[in-house]
Amino acid sequence: MGLPGPGLWLKRFWVLLQVVVHVAVGKVCLILFPERVKQHILAMNQKNPHFSYDNWAPTFYSMQYFWFVLKVRWQRLEDRTEPGGLAPNCPVVQLSGQRCNIWDFMHGNRPLVLNFGSCT
């Protein structure tokens, strides 16, 4: 399994640039047009009655926001797979409650079959 290939590093760099631009533009808009940004954020969250702009506004486009968005976007890169490629190494919880990753179940060249289900 080893280190990620050069393709993943390039994708991570591209995502880093996208998040930097997103946060920079958002911060500038928040400074130059605070009322318009407030209207936009409130419009996006009309369906959530627990959303309070006063509680959340200071976190938008902050360094904490930047690192969170970057972490999530980088993690999503590794959660994708291509036909014939490796399965993503997602965290899973065994019935015993022990936490591990999918790749922990791979042994040699044996195929690994994942069966997902739901009982509702």
Write out key terms for the chains shown.
120 residues; two-stranded antiparallel ribbon; 4 helices; elongated
What does this structure look like?
The chain is mainly α and 120 residues long. It has a domain at 5-79. The chain is 48% helix and 5% strand. It is built from four helices and two strands; from the N terminus they run ααααββ. The protein has a two-stranded antiparallel sheet with strand order 1-2. β1 and β2 (99-101) form a beta hairpin. 2% of the residues are buried. The mean pLDDT is 84. It is found in: Basolateral cell membrane.
What are the SSEs and their pairings?
Layout: H1 6-32, H2 34-44, H3 53-56, H4 63-78, E1 91-93, E2 99-101
Antiparallel strand pairs: 1-2
Helix pairs in contact: 1-2, 1-4
| Arithmetic mean of pLDDT | 84
Radius of gyration: 20 Å
**Strand residue content:** 5-15%
Helix content: 40-55%
Distance between the termini: 35 Å
- Would you report the number of β strands? 2
Characterize the largest beta sheet: strand count, sense, and whether it forms a barrel: 2 strands, antiparallel
Sheet with the most strands: spatial strand order: 1-2
Separate helix tally = 4
**Can you tell me the overall shape?**
elongated
Q: In sequence order, what are the helices and strands, one letter per element? A: HHHHEE
Helix-strand makeup class: mainly alpha
Question: In terms of per-residue confidence, which ranges show pLDDT below 50 for 5 or more consecutive residues?
Answer: none
Subunit structure: Predominantly monomer. Can form homodimers but homodimerization is not essential for enzyme activity.
Family: Belongs to the iodothyronine deiodinase family.
Pfam families: T4_deiodinase
GO molecular function: thyroxine 5'-deiodinase activity
